[in-house]
What we know:
- The protein is an alpha/beta fold.
- It folds into two domains: 245 residues, P-loop containing nucleotide triphosphate hydrolases (Rossmann fold, 3-Layer(aba) Sandwich), CATH 3.40.50; 74 residues, Rossmann fold (3-Layer(aba) Sandwich), CATH 3.40.50.
- Helix content is 31%, strand content 27%.
- It is built from twelve helices and 18 strands.
- The longest helix is centred in the middle third of the chain and has 18 residues.
- The protein is globular, with a radius of gyration of 25 Å.
- The mean pLDDT is 85.
Amino acid sequence: MAENQSLLHTEQLVIGYHAGKKQAKAIAGPLDLHLYAGELICLLGPNGCGKSTLLRTIAGLQLPLAGAIDLEGESLLKMKPTQLARKLSLVLTDNVRSGNLDVQAVVALGRYPYSGWLGILTDEDKQVTENALLVTHTATFATRKIDSLSDGECQKVMLARAIAQDTPLIILDEPTAHLDLPSRIQLMRLLHQLARETNKAILISTHELDLALQVADQIWLMDSDGNLVAGLPEQLILDGSFQKAFDKDGISFDAATGNFHIHDTGKVLIVVEGEGVAAFWTRRALARKGYRVLSSVIDLIPIASNNLVVIVESDEKHTQWIVQQQQTRITYLSLISFLDSL
Length: 342
């Protein structure tokens, strides 16, 4: 996609804050970034690296220390608030609870850039509000008070309000912060779908690394030193950027599986031969127990001839674990009995 087609782009952008009247502290930059319509962009990085500062700067809530931000071909820094409100909507981490308002009224607030100071909704405004409720699956509880909702439902309502605002760019800061695992998965999947179905650019900061790898069209990856790399999730894995950012403190990212390893690699070697679900979870259980797990007996030949080899055999009804060591061969009929034997 050509650069002149980008919805938003930054040029030599430096973000930070003013520590005093004349002192400025830069957090990151210079940054040359691009956002495109129809894409979900996930901003990843450790706490304190500047993710929220970057989002607030792009949203116009905070002035940059240097550089330019263009939104739909115009300087964001020169836009009036009413003009910016028609181009960009923002959902922050605050868990909003307005007890006197029902869900439909909260979502309808997204129409404020178009309804004038009297707040009178036209038929078009009402239709846009109804559509926002439908696409976010919040229409079923539109008449409930906002303070009666779960955290996941409330977050969807805030997203619906942003969609009702009908801007080409939606920015969300940690939208899954207050949610349980099923709600986090549902919301990330919903954001992925909305970007495609509405052709809006959706930019979110998140700590959901595994989910971001599955749903993001592009990842912006920040580190603690203010550096940022942007690209396809797969490309950032292949070029080592993802591993470099998150391989630390006993946690390592496995590019071959897309998983994080949180256990230290054991010194005792064990080979697990087999495919399928049972073999996969057997390897996971052994890693948790502190073993160094290999997948082929060939890998062990240069190391030792008396290491354990486990063959996992499964059919539709049964699974068995066959343990071989030198001339000994023992069969176990459950994972726990096999692990206990070790």
